[in-house]
Amino acid sequence: xxxxxxxxxxxxxxxxxxxxxxxxxxxxxxxxxxxxxxxxxxxxxxxxxxxxxxxxxxxxxxxxxxxxxxxxxxxxxxxxxxxxxxxxxxxxxxxxxxxxxxxxxxxxxxxxxxxxxxxxxxxxxxxxxxxxxxxxxxxxxxxxxxxxxxxxxxxxxxxxxxxxxxxxxxxxxxxxxxxxxxxxxxxxxxxxxxxxxxxxxxxxxxxxxxxxxxxxxxxxxxxxxx
Length: 226
Prior knowledge:
This protein is of the alpha/beta class. The chain has one domain. Helices cover 34% and strands 15% of the residues. The strands form 2 sheets. The protein has a 5-stranded parallel sheet, with helices on both faces. Strands 3-4 form a two-stranded antiparallel sheet. The longest helix is centred in the middle third of the chain and has 16 residues. It is globular and about 55 Å long. It starts with a strand and ends in a 7-residue tail after the last helix.
C-alpha cells in the first residue's frame, strides 16, 4: 500500500497541512500550477497580542499573470529578517519560544534568506518543520515528476509515477476530482478530514486554529500538535 498526497506550495502552512503529510508515504509540493495572488503560496498568519497579522514574502508578480509557483521569484530579500523579527516579537513570551522554537527559527530563516525562488523557500521550511514533528514522509516537487495536460490527468500521472495505491485528497478537490478515473487505474481516493486539534491560548487570549504551524509550535510541544 502506497499513499500519496499532492498540495500546492504554501508558506509556513497551518498544522492541518502537516497532518495530511504525515498520513501518506509520498507528499508532492504542487509547484507547477499557476501562482495565485493574495493566497497561501507566499503568506500566512500568526497571532499577536493585538490579534492576527499576515507575514508575506514579497514576490515579482507585475505583468507575470501566468507564472507558475516554481517560477515565482522573491522581490525583496530583506523579507526573512523582517519575518524573523515579527515572529520573535509575537512569540517572545510563548512557552516554547526561548528554549526551543526561537533558536530553530534563526537557523531555518538563515537557510532561506538568500534563496530567490518562492517554492524552494517553502520546501525548506516545510522540511524543517517535518523533522521537528518526526514526520518521515518523502517530499517531492511536482516539477521533478511526469507532466501532462488536464487537471485530473496530471494528478493521476504523479500518483502513477510514485506507485500510489491510494490518493489522499484535500476537500477543495471535491468539485473537480474524477474519482472514477483514478479507480480505473487501481488507485483508490480518500478525502482528508481535519479533526478538532488540541487548543491553546494565544497572546491575544483567543484560539484561532487557522494560523501558521509556527504559531502552534510556539505554544505546544511537537507531540501535542495533532
